[in-house]
Amino acid sequence: MKISLAWLSDFVTWTEKDPHAIAERITLGAAEVEEVEEQGRYLNRCCVGKVLTADKHPNADRLMICTVETDNGVKTVVCGGTNVVPGMHVAFAHIGATVKWHGEDTVTLEPVKIRGTQSEGMICAAEEIGLDGIYQVHTEDGERPIMNLDRLSNEYAVTVGSPLRETFGMTDTVLHINNTAITTRPDLFSHIGFAREVVALGLATWKKKKSAKEIQFPATPSPLKVSIDVPDLVPRFLGCMIHVENIGETPEWMKKRLAAVGIRSISLPVDITNYVANEIGVPMHSFDAGDIQGAVHVRLSKKGESLVTLDNTTINLPDGALIMNDDDGIFDLLGIMGGLRSSTKPETKKIFMQALSIDPATIRRTVIATDHRTDASTVYEKGVPPVTTEAGFMRALELMLELTPGATIASGPVTKGDNGTTPTIPLSVERAQAHIGAAIPEDEMVRILESLECDVKKGPKKGVLTVTPPLHRVRDLHGDHDLFEEIGRIYGYDRLEDVLPMGELRIPKRDERIHAMRDVLKSAMYLETVPLTFISRQQMQKAGFDSAHAVEIENPLGDDTAYLQTSTFPALLIHAENNLMRSTTLRTFHWSHVFAKGQPEHLELSMMTSTRETTGLLNDPFLETKETLLAAVAAMGYDVTITATKSAPAYAHPGRAASVMFGKEVMGEIFEVHPGVRQIFGIPGRAAGAIINLSALLKHAPAIIHAKPLPLFPSVTYDVTLSRTHDQHVEALLEKARKESDLLESVVVHDLYQKAGSDTYNATLRFTYRSLERTLTEDEVKAAHEKVLKAIS
Description:
single chain, five-stranded antiparallel β-sheet
């Protein structure tokens, strides 16, 4: 966005004269100024010169020796321009002038001898002094011809010796505003918007407002009937029919203004709409009414429709783009670009001038769908307030009637919608001071808000202001937080005291039981996985879980993430499916929240052990999972038991499933994965899993672990191997052994072995005997051990 300070001077009187100071204050208080462009900065020490003589250089084929009449006498220069002839008026740069050498790097001219001839300046091409915008010559051989000012004599007063800045009126300063800094401020996409800002920031004062010429509309209804089929997407529409003798010529002052902000002059109707867009902030369009056939409808496009735009590009329209169509079809893509068919032409006699406010989201979607971005769409997708639309429409009519030959309003206006209202916002002075971080007096807040054209009333409650924003700020001032920002930025963020943020740092409460569990699992070589809590219905069903109670997500990222997980175990199966091929054995665990309709959300732990080959009971996945689970739960402070269950879930082997009990309460289950589930997930060997309701377990107080002194006396260990069938539980044997002798410190299963094809297995039990009072004799240990063996035989 480019803002001309000379253009702003139509509305304000500057109290700050330095453009760089103006730019700095605007950056601090309104929007980032990326560049301060001083027009004619390469025209200092440059004047209009007249070539008196032009002779070939005796020592160079491509150079000329010229004498030039200037404001400082006749100068001799060496010139490389091939189009220099005596009598020609040129742009002459004196010694000390700064120019762009060949339109690129800047150099300051110094006295120099070129091939033996002293040169006292430079005859310039347009790009060397920044005038290529108004003097454009294209050559096939890439040469840069000397600027021939005689070609511009009809537009500018070319007088020998006159400074070039005055000749071309290049005295403006243009601020380059970062568009992203004003993305929430559609009112700032205009000069009148920045005029309000510089007044509020104390950089200028308002000039006495000229009384606008009252436009008289005939009572005759508009011959062009316009229907808004989607009024919620076009809240404001204004149009008017104008008869003209011809479309006329754009005046130089308007061309100059448009050029300053980077817009090329096209034709008077188009230039007027561009001028109003930059001055008021509403993109407009002028149609050749003679090309519009029948009634006009503003509607949404359908996929497959197309439009040839002003730039002669055919756009295939998506569903839902705002368009205008008549009996002959679509002729305008609203808010983005008009159609070629209805554009104004040199022979146009009837112009339909239009201004409107449009739903910004619709414009944004259309830009993305068509990949067709324009200056108009950039503004419209920010949201043009209806009051701005009306102001721009009236300004455009004023300029049309003033500048277009024979222009008359042919009928009454077409108007749809109104300018709307803005909310009344209560503002607590104390709350504003606390949020801004400065004790700004109430009267100063009132002054700031009124400078932004807000209506401010005090009371009835002390310290509370009632603020009504202006209609042109309807898009961004909605609550007191918006007013805090307005007060703060106009007051000056640089005036606020620097205060380091303060916060109390407290170590958050951590449930060490969870971390103790994780540490045991990781030390047992289990990998912790952290998948998403989302899952698909198909994945739940593959894993053997019921999906009927799954909670569906309203706006899922995709089909694979359409539901919240009802269990953490399916994620481990999915992980195994993708990763088991890389290793012989895979041990994983995952704990997270799970969800189900009609049930409270809770924490759940899942473990899984899978292996390609099982070579014996010691690496049986079920027994390994059981051993690790008991150790992990014990580290949390809980003593759980494994109890056989009569019925197994669909994902578990029907003969190898058990319940995990804490007292009489079921806390989860341990199982071998059902062969059908293993096959679906491509797990080649056996796999076992465990699922524990952590939330239910953690509700119970953990056991207090008492430290015991290290034993002072040695132990005696015996290993005994017993042959057992699978129906004979070892657990009952161990419990009986522990009760038989006070000297028996522990008895555990030390080893398991089963011969292939055998119905029995061998269990090696390790018996450890110790006394806390003395060293045991061999006879004492043998007697105790025989007693224990007799009890379990």
